Known about the structure:
Blueprint: H1 22-27, E1 34-37, E2 43-45, H2 53-61, E3 65-69, E4 72-78, E5 83-85
Antiparallel strand pairs: 1-2, 1-3, 3-4, 4-5
Amino acid sequence: xxxxxxxxxxxxxxxxxxxxxxxxxxxxxxxxxxxxxxxxxxxxxxxxxxxxxxxxxxxxxxxxxxxxxxxxxxxxxxxxxxxxxxxxxxxxxxxxxxxxx
Length: 101
């Protein structure tokens, strides 16, 4: 059974906050993939990355929807409902810096 998401109304067209994971760029750390918050534009690293900054941003902000952003992948995910969501548009990529080992 597929789950539904009741949070699509909060999806915004955003400007990415950085060309890579904000926190990893500040600390000099690395990431695997990037995720973009579709409420505020925060760019964080995915859960396959050591620091999981996108999920940390969700827990701190309660912004529910992220977009796969490395490269712009066009899919959305709702943390609250734990399901993929259709996004109304893709966010143009600003040219992220690749940071993985």
